[in-house]
Amino acid sequence: MIYIYALGLSFVLVFLIVPIVRAAALKLGFVDRPTKRKVHQSPIPLSGGVAIYAGVILTTWLFLGDSSILRVLALGGGLLVAVGLVDDSFKSRARDFPVWPRLIVYIGVSLIPSAFGIQIAGISAPSRSAMILFSPGWAAFFTLLWVFALINMLNFIDGIDGLASGVSVISSFTLFVASLIGEQDVTALIGVALAGSCLAFLVYNFHPARIFMGDAGATFLGYTLAVTAINGTLKGATFLSLLVPVLALGVPFLDTIIVFSRRLLEGKGLHRADNLHTHHSLMRWGLTQVQTVSFLYLIAAVFSLLSIVILLMLR
């Protein structure tokens, strides 16, 4: 029952906060202006990430109180939202924010979970009869790599209405179910709080979107999903259970692999924004935004079901 309350509270919080931040963004001219690379044709208010951050943090605090994972999410997420808002402010003036300040913040934020004892500690054989424990340095490195990757992957797929928020709903519900199976109450609650927040935001973000989450929201979602996965299935994973969070986040992983492969083949910088993402390709093939998002939701759901099946097989 507590999970239903957390889901409902996070949904209501974000549902009520989004119109406030949307009105503020319009008043301040804080909007994402159309460019050749983007699919929207008119300026759309940014700052939706602030509402998602508030929904997740407030719900987690009310149900879990002060805890290590709350501090990790509040501190790391707050820094990502802050730098994301700066990046979004550049977008509102049709300018590009330099990559290096973002990169430094992303790396610094990716170190925060390890500082609070939330890290990928080791890996065990499928039978769990023996476990290889990582040294503190390697544990911090693998944790940093995972968190940094997810921060960027969710940011990459936030290119059309409702994609990042919808995929995050599916991924967070999957991590919620995985946590219930593993009897991990704290991780389960964060998963459902994130799902409720993203679901409420999706009401405003589905095509035609009335607000975007911006980099502030997309990077926070990636960070929260990464930390939730570490606190759940990745702390001491088996070789096979590594597939659970990877499949739960299958669409961002798949899109990143495809985009990076294309950029390498075309000799482009890996960090350069372009229209080589999966959703861009699907739309060039004739699909509408709604059809594209629906298709990618379906792929995400299939990946998520596979991850749950694997987890059940391992028990």
Q: Would you spell out the secondary-structure blueprint of this structure?
A:
Layout: H1 2-28, E1 31-32, E2 44-45, H2 48-64, H3 68-92, H4 99-115, E3 122-124, E4 131-133, H5 136-157, H6 163-181, H7 185-205, H8 214-234, E5 236-238, H9 243-248, H10 250-265, H11 278-284, H12 289-314
Parallel strand pairs: 3-5
Antiparallel strand pairs: 1-2, 3-4
Helix pairs in contact: 1-2, 1-7, 2-3, 2-7, 2-8, 3-4, 3-8, 4-5, 5-8, 5-10, 6-7, 6-8, 6-12, 7-8
Keywords: Cell membrane, Magnesium, Membrane, Metal-binding, Transferase, Transmembrane, Transmembrane helix
Pfam families: Glycos_transf_4
Subcellular location: Cell membrane
Could you walk me through the main structural features you see in this protein, from its secondary elements to its overall organization?
This protein is mostly helical. The chain has one domain (2-314). Helix content is 71%, strand content 4%. It is built from 12 helices and 5 strands. The strands form 2 sheets. The protein has a 3-stranded mixed beta sheet with strand order 4-3-5, with no helix packed on it. Strands 1-2 form a two-stranded antiparallel ribbon. Strand 3 (122-124) and strand 4 (131-133) form a beta hairpin. Helix 1 runs antiparallel to helix 2 and helix 4 packs across helix 5 (136-157). The mean pLDDT is 86. This is Undecaprenyl/decaprenyl-phosphate alpha-N-acetylglucosaminyl 1-phosphate transferase.
